[in-house]
Amino acid sequence: MKAILDNNIKDGRLKTIARKVFDSERLSESDGLYLFEHGSLALLGILANHDRQRRHGDTTYFNRNFHIEPTNVCLYTCTFCSYSRLIKKREQGWEYSLAEIMDIVKKYDGQPVTEVHIVGGVLPQYDVKFYVDLFKAIKSHRPELHIKALTPVEFHYIFKKAKISYKEGLEILAEAGLDSVPGGGAEIFDEKIRSEIAGGKCSSDQWIELHEIWHNMGKRSNATMLYGHIENYSHRIDHMSRLRQLQDRTGGFQTFIPLKFRNQGNQLSHLPELPAHEDLKNYAVSRLFMDNFEHIKAYWPMIGRQMAQLSLNFGVDDIDGTIDDTTKIYSMAGSEEQSPALSTSQLVNLIREVKRVPIERDTLYNVITDFEGVEFEDEHGIKGYMSLPVINN
Ligand code: V47
Ligand code: SF4
Prior knowledge:
Helix content is 42%, strand content 13%. The strands form 3 sheets. Strands 9-1-10-11 form a 4-stranded mixed β-sheet, covered by helices on one side. It folds into 2 domains: 55 residues, no CATH class; 312 residues, Aldolase class I (TIM Barrel), CATH 3.20.20.70. The two termini are 28 Å apart. The protein contains 16 helices and 11 strands. By secondary structure, it is α/β, with parallel strands linked by helices. The structure holds ligand V47 and iron/sulfur cluster. The site of iron/sulfur cluster has 11 residues, from loops.
């Protein structure tokens, strides 16, 4: 493979970059930028797939999860956000009480979900005390359910309001039951672009600082990048580079999740969405550049299941989870998945259709079920995938 590529890549710089990939050498920021600007989709796919295969073989990960979005009313007015409602229009949104949130958690009693992902708008009543009470209530109801919740956007706001340091605040939440932190709120770290699309909320440095403190407490988190709006390739490389540096210091990130900007119903609706080949390219460059991230995730509710399948050839090894139609962030922004929900057998088949081996993981990537050659009945009573057409191919 290395020799074939070497003999067929005409561009000397791309040839050097390809050699680095095959020798597992770190790509520089300018290598990353060069790949974005000059790499063909075919070359990027081959390189990123090689890197993914070396790390994960044929495995593709997923989990059984559901989301809770306590509110979509928000103090901030991020221009890309289709989901939030201003306080003065709060009657158009929802604001769940602790009891209502617990009712959602209880709906999953007896179902084999392993993770609840909790994130939403920022409002004064959702303060440190609220989340402490909520996390404790969830843990006392279902101790083994992993709570992946909140982002530096909420942390910064609620800790400042409570007049406690980031470290004190994170320790209080961890003690109450917070297990890990999702990747949201990162958007784009470049300060100028960030102030245009997400002005007022936590800064890039604060986002990094909060994750660093969390990692230094021995905890894990994810990282995202919102791309395809007013940023350019250099901003994306700068964003990934800041994450890569933090990961060098702590090793606390589990997965990197590029999030494609969707343009319906927000203040940036005049911007066209990126074409599919740009999304695939972005996954590939992410895989190649983020050498110290073990996993690259394609979030299927945002890009749709077919793109999620394609992304598995461009460096992606994780496609998130069952979701069960519990998140509105992407359907309200125009995703083709208007009611995102996949049963376990549907997820298993989606992965098997593109000849990968599905592995159900927990949030920390411990293997729950390796589906290679396994027959099963999922939580919806759908009998083993062996009976579905794709498996007979
Ligand atoms: O920070 C909001 C993004 C993020 C739009 O950690 C949008 O496993 C595209 O972080 N178009 C929140 N993106 C979601 C998030 C996430 C999702 C899945 C898994 C994990 C994880 C984390 O959603 C926000 C923002 O970047 N977002 N609006 C939009 N119109
Ligand atoms: Fe609020 Fe988050 Fe939407 Fe920004 S992205 S307006 S912080 S809900």
